[in-house]
Fold this protein.
Amino acid sequence: MRTGMSALALGLLSLGLLPALPSVGWLFLLFLSALMCLFTRVWPIGWFLLGLSWACWSAQQALDDRLIAELDGRTLWLEGRVTGLATQSGRSVRFELDEAQSRRAKLPRRMQLSWFDGPMVRTGERWRLAVNLRRPQGLLNPHGPDREAMLLARRIGATGTVKAGEMLAPASGGWRDRLRQRLLAVDAQGREVVLAALVLGDGSGLAREDWQALQATGTVHLMVISGQHIGLLAGLIYGLVAGLARLGAWPGRLPWLPWACGLAMAAALAYGALAGFQVPVQRACLMLATVLVWRLRFRHLGAFFPLLLALVGVLLCEPLASLMPGFWLSFAAVAVLIYCFSARLGGWRPWQAWSRAQWVIAIGLLPAMLALGLPVSLSAPLVNLLAVPWISLAVLPLALLGTATLPLAGVGESLLWLAGGLIDLMFRALGLLAEWRPPWTPPPLSLWAWTLVCAGALLFLLPRGVPLRGLGAVMLLALWAPREQVPHAEVEVWQLDVGQGLAVLLRTRHHSLLYDAGPAMGTSDLGQTVVLPTLRRLGVNQLDLMLISHAHADHAGGAVAVQRGLPVARVLAGEARELPAVLGAQVCSSGERWEWDGVMFSLWHWPSGKNSNDRSCVLLVEAQGERLLLAGDMEADAERAWLESADAARIDWLQSPHHGSRSSSTEPFIRAIAPRGVMISRGRHNGFGHPHPQVIERYRRHGLAVHDTALQGALHLRLGRHGEVEGLRAQRRFWREPPS
């Protein structure tokens, strides 16, 4: 039985490794092969193929429900019903629309929409909306999150921006929305949003500072309704019934164990209903049901069997769940606890078991965190030792009890006020701890180093006295295995995918340079959310130079966040006086040259340029005869001035000036420098129309290879090898659109 279930689980999990889904014909053959193997009692292969065919079929259904390419970027009037809880982010309202219909085209069943300056929509309302539709896609950077995969896992078939709308029918049955509004209206000492997250699983309203504190201290799991919260509530109910039975206060005619399990499950389902039964809650409830059934009837099957059963159950219900990082972390955490706490000789005192659980989780989840590219909180074991009981035993019971007693005048408000005070105290402490010990983002490990870390964690978590346990600690040192260095006289170039902006990382053997820092507008700072995390994931611990081409927000907006997060030895800028004084930027000076590790760098600047774009600081990089020109946003006049300068020469690779605007990349400029290829950094469906069709046609006419972050994700080049530019989308995954 275990063998068959394990094979079925492996088949379901194999979905995430596929570069492309099989065609209908191959899928049918796969299913027939599975049935044939099961009929001939070749059980493992049969169950594996059955799981794989089911996962592929389910994934294909989700892909088929995506917005068709012909509607990408178009604006349509459509009708639909608001589902889930709408959230406010700055001046934008974000929500999901279900049952979307249009007279002009077939639409995906579910969409994720944003409405700038729009009304706060309610769950269950029906709206008629004018929406600029887009196929699901997101920024794609090295070792970073894959938004396209996460949207597919949630079966979001389209995203869009609302231009106008009218409500057709008011909300019906939106009790969660009404409850949230009630919770946000109480006085919880400024922590009303956190209360809504604990009670309803709605953490979208938390401030960025709160999320950063939670991530830095490894306590994000405390603010979302997950297995821990579900298990805690069920455990309290189970313990209450068991305690009454032990004291003789439970009715003798009712068997206490079935009632304890039934009431615990009922409490978990009720709490899950509060959270809207999202995938993490479904997973938690299914795992709890498995554990309770195991407790009633099947304890002889072992401790790992409930976990395996829950894993198979979750994947059968939603095969795409394996595309979400939370899926791997939650199951890995439970597996680690079972591995360390089951089948041990002797017992631990409660405080010993609790303290060991924290460092066991920290070490056991290391391989998963490394594989997912997530930062590792160094303070998490210590923080969770206190924060988990603080939330679980004090805040959460008060929050739930206060919510339940809101109809009683003054009672519910008082309990929620007290819960809010406890939350505020915890967040103040988390903020201090986050500043004291920020999270560690390890550089990407090679496969052999990651395998050593996995084996080391498994050995180190064995009981004391087991042979080779000490070897595990030694194998964990592979975390600091030397990564591949850039060869002498070469430059590793990453043009990051930052939407309508620019950020280019250049690394020689011992030096790092960042050219522009990504956009920041309003509450969105891609320097903080994209550039800085990507630099850390690539192993950049400090910058020898941050060069800001000019002061426009799409180039300079993220500079302060980058400087705040990494040591920066020097800052140069084309418009130093226009930048925040905290950067301490110096003026870019034409003719400045230097050499790093056999690579030549030189600057050009036209201070008399008529506009900010023409005053961009331009960087020329040369490695073993191969040349790259980073041109910022310089336009026609600046291009003409550069051609007249002594620096003008043939270029191999060009960062497309001004994102491919018609005012740049003039015919004389392209003819004179004659590059092999051009790298465009821009946002998909940007409002400026970049790159202009005339510019693209000019590139094509001159034989340039055109590389575009909006279509290919982050672009990678090894300058000095005379190779080609590679986009991250060239690494095929079945959920990604192939690069155009």
Remarks:
- Residues 219-376 form one domain.
- The two ends are 47 Å apart (CA to CA).
